[in-house]
Design brief:
By secondary structure, this protein is mainly beta. The chain has 1 helix and 16 strands. One of its GO terms (biological process) is meiotic cell cycle.
Length: 237
């Protein structure tokens, strides 16, 4: 069923409302018989999209509300999440960054709502990959990721004033790979083992021209360094 404007040839053109045979509905702009321009498409399962269309496909800026309560707001190309956008997952996690062909791809930030942890860095086809920083409440890891796991050399930076340098090596047990569904949340579990090499004082830096604290103001306490090392080991076990 269609109720709206048409062109001289009788095709849907301008603004109109339509009910599709499958029970979905669309209200918005048409051009020569196709959904093009601004519109709202409501699916029979409760999901709906509000945004731009081009030749019956989501194209441009738009917001998609999924049946499970998750939401994507950002760029679309040829009916797929592509460009820059924000995805809010059903469990409250969020991803903000670049997309390609419906996958997290490029640079982006993923925030885990339950723990407050934050992954900032590279993505490839929906999986954490490339240079990145995994930020926790009282420490952070800086290094490389491959297929969702940290790999190679990196360092843990602790708020108590020290760094633990080392590398991630493959564990003996290889559980195999499972393809991740796009709407699934990335896992914090790792299949690699952290091997610490040294603990150093925090690498000082000077923000906005301020003077860094003197070494006397930021001592490396042996007990604190040992606690930092144990914290990483416990997290990996």
């Amino acid at each position: 069923e269609y109720d709206g404007e048409r062109d001289s040839e009788g095709e849907r053109h301008g603004r109109g409302k339509a009910r599709l045979p499958n029970g979905d509905t669309y209200e918005g702009e048409y051009q020569h018989g196709a959904r093009s321009g601004q519109g709202i498409y409501r699916f029979k399962n409760g999901a709906y999209y509000t945004g731009e269309y081009l030749q019956n496909k989501k194209h441009g800026r738009g917001i998609f509300f999924y049946p499970d309560g998750s939401k994507y707001e950002g760029d679309w190309v040829d009916d797929q999440r592509h460009g820059y956008g924000v995805y809010t997952y059903a469990n409250g996690d969020t991803y903000t960054g670049e997309w390609s062909n419906n996958n997290r791809h490029g640079q982006g930030t993923y925030i885990y709502k339950d723990t407050g942890s934050k992954y900032v860095g590279g993505w490839a086809n929906g999986i954490q990959e490339g240079q990145a920083e995994l930020i926790h409440l009282n420490h952070r890891f800086k290094g490389m990721f491959l297929k969702g796991n940290p790999v190679g050399r990196g360092k843990y930076v602790f708020d108590i004033g020290c760094e633990q340098h080392g590398e991630y090596i493959q564990s003996e047990q290889d559980k195999g790979e499972e393809e991740e569904e796009e709407e699934d949340e990335p896992s914090l579990l790792v299949e690699t083992k952290w091997k610490a090499s040294e603990i150093t004082k925090l690498t000082l830096w000077t923000p906005h021209g301020e003077n860094p604290p003197s070494p006397r103001e930021a001592p490396l306490v042996p007990a604190a360094a040992a606690a930092a090392a144990e914290a990483v080991e416990e997290r990996e076990e």
